[in-house]
Amino acid sequence: MSIHSRRDIITEEVSVKALKQVTLAAVLGALSMTALAEIKPFEAVEYRKGIFKAVKWQFGPMGDMVKGKIDYDAEEFSRRATNLAALSHMPLEGFRAGTYASSTSALPSIEDDWQTFADTMTQFQNNTAALQQAAASGDMKTIKPAFITVARTCKSCHDKFKD
Ligand code: HEC
């Protein structure tokens, strides 16, 4: 390969890169994406509420199966347990400074006692991971106690940190 053609290839690569960057900027602009630092308090509140809505969406039918209100479906239960375990890692970043005043039922004690709140969220992550594992057994005798442990984690956090 001659030096000249090699330079052509490099130039081409650079311009493809530049094009990709321009395209990404245009796409992000169209989605009106903002940098994390520019997030407004209401956006953080909407974000965490949205995650908890999804948590409820997944957890509700699991509870109905554990209680025998609807038939236990091992595949569905497992899928929801996997979703729940993934969701458990998402709310914490929505609890930002200055987001406890309006349109929220999160208590300001979250900010004052951040370590306890973050630790409870870690328990939530561990307990939903354990539930996901129990779900894989396909055995309600194994699943039920793991489910109850998660439900207690929801309640203990809400009792302390939610209106
Ligand atoms: C570590 C603390 C914590 C854990 C664990 C937790 N929550 Fe919450 N949850 C909160 C807080 C704080 C709010 C209030 C969020 C807000 O209004 O800004 C909330 C809000 C909610 C909401 C209301 C969302 C809305 O529509 O505004 C639902 C539903 C909910 N949680 C369900 C659950 C369920 C079900 C679990 C367990 C499977 C759970 N949460 C576990 C802290 C927690």
From TrEMBL:
Gene3D superfamilies: Cytochrome c/b562 (1.20.120.10). It holds the Pfam family Cytochrom_C_2. One of its GO terms (biological process) is electron transport chain. InterPro entries: Cyt_c/b562, Cyt_c_II. This is Cytochrome C. GO terms for molecular function: electron transfer activity; heme binding; iron ion binding.
